[in-house]
Amino acid sequence: MDQGGATCRRLSSGLKIIHLPLAGLNTVSIGLLSGAGARLEAEDEIGSSRILEDWIWRREQKQEDIHDILADFGANLKTSSNIEWTRHWTTVLCNQFEPVFKLFLHDILEFDLCTNTFAASKEYTVTLASKRRQEPNAYVMDVLREKMSGGTTIGRSTVGLVEDMDKLDLPKIQNVYERLYAPNNCVVAVVGGIPKDRMGKLLDEIVEAGDVQNSPVVPQEESPSWQSCVHSIEQEGRLVHLGAALPCVSCSHPDFFAFAVLSQALGGGDGSRLFESIRQKKGLAYQVRSSLMSFRDTGLLTFYLATGPNFVSWAASAIAGEIKHIRNKGISREEVNAAKNQLLNQMVLRSESTASRMNTLLTASWYPGYPGTLTAMEEAISAVTPKAIQSALMNVAPAAAMGLVTLGPVSASALVLDQ
Amino acid sequence: MAYSEWKYPNGLNIITEDMPSMASVTVGFFVLSGAGHESLEEIGIAHALEHLLFRGSLLYPKGTMSPEFTQLTGTMNAFTTWEYTCFYSRSTPEVLSDAFLPLMDMIRQPLLREEDFNLEQNIIRRELSRQLEEPRSRLTHALHQSVYPGRLGKLLIGHDEDILQLKAPDLREFHKRHYIPSNILLVISGRLEKCIGLDSCLQALEDWDESIIPVELEQPLIAQPEVVNLTQKHSELCYSLWAWSLPPLEDKEHYAVHLLCTLLGDDNYIGSRLYNKIVAPGFAQQITCVYTVLGGKGLFKIYGLTSAPQLEWIREKMLVELQQIKAGMITPREYNRAKQKVKTQMALDASGSHSRSVSIAQAWMRHKRMVPLSELLALIDQISIDDLQNIIEQYFSGREFFEIYG
After folding, report:
1. Number of domains in chain A
2. pLDDT for the residue B280
3. A30, A261, B94, B195: most buried by Cβ count inside 10 Å?
4. Of B65, B92, B347, which has the smallest distance from its Cβ to A345's Cβ?
5. 121-160 in B: which are within 8 Å (CB) of A?
6. What is chain A's Cα-based Rg?
């Protein structure tokens, strides 16, 4: 199940196409990642990438509408985004591959920015932005990143803010599209039951489109220096949602996998330290998670849980206490090995999904240094030692530079940390 | 995909399906009792038991969420529905028995300790708090309250007072009655050829005796619905749910109504009737259709998300579209598109060992036998435009219609 069999071809337009054939599957996933995100937008363009994420698929209602044709093939379209990229992908039966692939690329890279549907897309995106508050997990993480960013572009909202989007007009978004959806600022991955020769033949047929750019658009500012914070968004309810974060590294940094193993050991699921101490032993939360939020030049090690207002300080202290303990005393070899095994298991299980493998290829292609094959990833995880984790923590987050944000019936002044 | 199906003398039903291109294998124990089998005094017990089983069993007293298990077994999890409760593991085939044996033991001989239950009660109440924050979950619950008079009208996991009144001995009693081999379906799907220890795992099931004489399971209450129009506060962003009460459709009609859902408005991003008429022009942000059967009653549900001023217009537009389908205005193109979408979705479900195990179990519960994917695809192919039209004509007129906004 390695991804070592992947091949890459760059078209003259600059568009990079990666193909991984997997024998025996009758489905294929096609994905395109563009460097469109809030971090790459100018001040007066903020929110454009999110509107484009929807607008690209919202065509004029005419008889031979392209997106209806895609739907005729049973194409199941999905999108996702963060502040540095936007992904569009679909999974179809292999016998529908060629026409869907052509239409998919055509729809995204030769989008005609139809004016009739602009208002609908803007309205939709504004709704998503205002709905964000009803997704407490995501919302506390947005606010946490913003508060810790010290006002730099890395703190921008993933889904956009209603007030920013209200100011956007069509020419501004057109400008963002032409800049960030240029073929050279995009990468395509195809994973599934399509053999190499079939893919090669198709690529030979493709008529290339779009202007050539010299290089992908990447954030120009210096890596931000994360700031600690304690912030509360007070609202009525039974639960307090707690987001906490610690400065971390980018996904191409040599310490990335040390943090990945640490995150797994702390709150990567059943059996992790925080799962045991907060959920299993105290019964204080239904879900306790930690994960890595990674960008091109930096990252955060994040924690999330939801508990009652009387327990949130205790839970926040428990998180801070575990980090302090590992920073000062280290972590046992057994615990590191257990976390590594869990990560390796998850990696193999995720590799079953063509969409998941396609997304890994897109990430590896977009972030230089991120391992693109299962073997490379396995090696990177296996190489992590207890010592490497402790020194990574001491190097990147030497002090208690944590950020904390709560959403629920508790004030910031009521948050008292033991650590 | 090659499959086997058999039944042990103790009544346990087993299906295995080999999926050679998979990296994993899923073991799913489907206990054919869920929240719908609870009495009004037992509200929340099926879900509470699902939680408590992970806390320890006779041979594995530390439970299957402890660190020594989780590093070996991949994913181990469970979920409770109205009709059944599923416990499953998804692992690499080489470690199948490391996952299988603890999973079997926790279902067969859980410890169900009082002190563990006290902790789980707290956890379940946090889970409840999360559910009460989710708009779609609240809409569905409001609909069930209106449609079903008995247990099915309450929350699946129960409210605080229900959860708090449960005691560990109640859970033991429920376990004793329902967690018996003849009330369980075991589905093993994935890369079977690479499985180590599969035969001995299956052998271990043979001596699983019925601990008591199987009792007739309680039948869920059949609802006596009334026409209800629940109108809550209209906020700027409005979640809505329109639902029609239908009979529990069987055989071809069952698949036809699901195809109708896809044609009208599925989760897919593009190309459905209501998406093209309502969402794409910007009148709503979301419209999806779902058909469910519960307690001898079918519900055809349309969920919407829009701004409050658009709500009335959308409601009218949606009813007009249903009228048009009733009048036979379905184009061959959209009919074929819906079929293609359903087939693609089935292929996607069949491309993961876990999703496949759930699909196999759900089809088994409907047909009381293994239904191969090829047979399901053939059933979809047999559905005609007239079948879709008939569904609306026969079952939507004069039926109870519910509207819930919030």
Report:
1. 2
2. 83
3. A261
4. B92
5. 121-124, 126-127, 129-130, 132-133, 135
6. 22
Residue to mutate among B66, B103, B133, B275, with most A CBs inside 10 A, is B133
Distance (Å, whole) CA A282 – CA B122? 9
Q: Which domain holds residue B296?
A: 229-405
Shortest CA gap B150–chain A (Å) = 27
Domain that holds residue A162: 7-205
- Chain-chain contact of B285 with A128 (C-beta, under 8 angstroms): yes
Give the length of chain A.
Answer: 419
A to B CB pairs, distance under 8 Å: 180
* Edge-to-edge strand list for the sheet holding A7-10: A7-10, A16-21, A186-192, A27-34, A86-93, A76-81
Q: What is the CATH number of the domain that holds A122?
A: 3.30.830.10
Instruction: Give yes or no for residue A62 having a pLDDT over 80.
Output: no
Given a cut of 60, whether residue B117 has pLDDT beyond it is yes
Q: What is the distance, to the nearest Å, from the Cα of residue B374 to the centroid of all Cα atoms in its chain? A: 22
The tokens describing B61, both together, are 């007293």
Instruction: Provide the pLDDT confidence category of residue B270 given band limits of 50, 70 and 90.
Output: confident
Write the pLDDT tens digit of every residue in A133-189: 889 999 999 999 999 999 999 999 988 888 888 899 999 999 999 999 999 999 999
- B80 vs A: CB within 8 A: no
B194 and B255 co-located in one domain: no
Cβ-nearest to B270 among A67, A128, A354: A67
CA separation for the pair B401, B395 (Å, rounded): 11
Q: Does A333 touch chain B (CB under 8 A)?
A: no
Q: Is B237's pLDDT higher than 50?
A: yes
Which value does ipTM take for this structure?
Answer: 0.89
